[in-house]
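Task card 7
Instruction: Convert sequence to structure tokens.
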Amino acid sequence: MMNIKYKPADKTDIEPIFKLNKALIDEYENMAIIDYQKVLSWVRNKIETHIQEYECVVFNEKKVGYYYFNDADGKMEIDDFYIFSQYQNMGIGTEILKKCISETDLPIFLYVFANNKRAIAFYQKLGFQVTEIIKGSRYIMQRV
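Output:
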């Protein structure tokens, strides 16, 4: 069993989470179809408003990632799920997803960029399937 701990995020985590979001948007979003500043503003507001509900993932006493697991209209959403690149491929993300799955009987869904093939393959291994395509640039994946 991995030595993963969880602690609530706080104000000092807003900027790192925002930067992780922005990096994904910059890499994967179709800039031709979004209002970039409006999207970034919405993302920052969401993080600031809900920061106390985010979890920091701690492995071997180091902060290695974040996620936000919340109720969204009778389903559970995994949002802003990040494992820092130097800690990927170590099983940490798998442990977090299994933890989320074990915490609810509700369907779980998440958004993923359509071009983020690695993330899609990762979620599929844990039983998630694409259920909706949004503007051609993102998928909703759900595990029932």
